[in-house]
Amino acid sequence: MSSNLYPAFGVLLVDDEASFLRSFSLILETQGGINHLYQCQDSRDAMQVIVENPIGLVLLDLTMPHLSGEALLQQIVEEHPDIGVIIISGLNQLETAVNCIRLGAYDYFIKTTEENRLLDGIHRAIRMQEMRLENLEMRRRFLSDTLDRPEVFADIITRDKGMRSVFQYLETVSASSQPVLITGESGTGKEAIARAIHTLSGRRGPLVCVNVAGLDDNIFADTLFGHQRGAFTGADKARAGMIDQAGGGTLLLDEIGDLSLASQVKLLRLLQEGEYYPLGSDRPKRIHARVLVATHQDLDQKQRDGEFRKDLYYRLRTHQVELPPLRQRQGDIPLLLDHFLAEAAEDLGRSKPPVPKELVALLRNYAFPGNVRELRALCFDALGRHRGSVLSMDVFRQAVGQEGAILESEADPAMPLFAPDQPLPTLQEVADMLVAEAMERAQGNQSRASRLLGISQPALSKRLKKSQS
Ligand SMILES: Nc1ncnc2c1ncn2[C@@H]1O[C@H](COP(=O)(O)OP(=O)(O)OP(=O)(O)O)[C@@H](O)[C@H]1O
């Protein structure tokens, strides 16, 4: 993949004026941040350039010798309907403009149009093209249920369908330069996902992570944008900001839900204009890194409550992934348990002990407020304390007990435990049901079942005999 090029597809500029090709390419690169450019001065060569290169958007002049822009537009629309075309003409004629749009052009600008408006129109067309291509790609992946680069996700242990869809989606949007909003409860693996996005993008440059929670506006600006020498008292040396350090790589802004409103304005401007000013400098710098943001908060709710800017929210969620909490992917618990125990064993230079079967059952009923990170910590703690032959469940039982976070009938408060229109079962009936469930989970082993029920094994045996008599 061609990294550090924006957009991921090529933009072809067709104009018979060499000076316009030169000057406009420079504007596109320096002010528009568009650096995946092809030029064509003879319109008769344009179709060949399109065939030989990954062109996604054509910026087309109209008045050209040999083959007019309108004729070329027709040809492109017929033979390459997936390519977008914007007309940039010296002619200010409504009729011609209407005709070009009818033929299939995205937009029509005259060459004297203000540069910013022209660039906005081109950025809009690029975004439309990106979305169209992403859409096609997503359909292809979902239908074939494939991952092109499964190795990128090797460290993220899962067999959950929702997580697999997240991986497929990320492969689809990996080439885009737009931000990705990664949401999910604490410890669900947002940073791990950010690493995968960075690897998938093939960008040259590092992944730089900044936790923006608790940064006041000045520190936020200094951290991201850096400063010039003498920018403020104590700034005795110039310092590069994180944007600079990320270069053409990826910048992850973690805990974005905690960003102050003043800093939100700065971030929005950075994303809209692609430029920033180091503190104390009046010369703008361009951002080349792709921005990812992560939060465990509900940004949608925050923007509705007026705590997060709407415009920034919509900009950030151009691409969005929501990582499910661990309690909603219970199938992953045995895999993760195995993975983390093996990791802990290697870390501690021990061999991995056998795990009691009831452990998975215990954990499946736990809400895991700290998600995967919590399970990992429990595994390391349990192995650190391990003495006997089979892994003790004490550490896990303690966590489950302390948090009081056992799932209550799938934690749906709207769902009552007993149907209100039915008579309640008796205590004896409930006790019998519990005993039966424990025996099933313990696969008939009475001593395990008694531990699940919190009673002694002789007490369980007595109950079983009584209920069978
Ligand atoms: N599916 C997974 N497989 C293996 N390890 C995982 C998985 N998900 C998370 N982890 C590990 O769990 C820990 C927490 O993950 P991570 O830091 O990515 O979570 P997070 O969502 O960014 O948390 P926070 O919101 O607190 O920043 C890390 O050690 C990470 O490697």
TrEMBL record:
UniProt-recorded name of the protein: Two-component system response regulator
Lineage: Bacteria, Pseudomonadati, Pseudomonadota, Gammaproteobacteria, Oceanospirillales
Modified residues (4-aspartylphosphate): 61
Gene Ontology MF term list: ATP binding; sequence-specific DNA binding
Organism of origin: Halomonas heilongjiangensis
Domain (Sigma-54 factor interaction): residue spans on this chain: 156-376
Family matches, as Gene3D superfamilies: 1.10.8.60, 3.40.50.2300, Homeodomain-like, P-loop containing nucleotide triphosphate hydrolases
GO BP terms in the entry: phosphorelay signal transduction system; regulation of DNA-templated transcription
Segments forming domain Response regulatory: 10-126
Highest taxon listed in the record's lineage: Bacteria
A Pfam family: Response_reg
Segments for region (Disordered): 441-469
Keywords associated with the record: ATP-binding, Nucleotide-binding, Phosphoprotein, Transcription, Transcription regulation
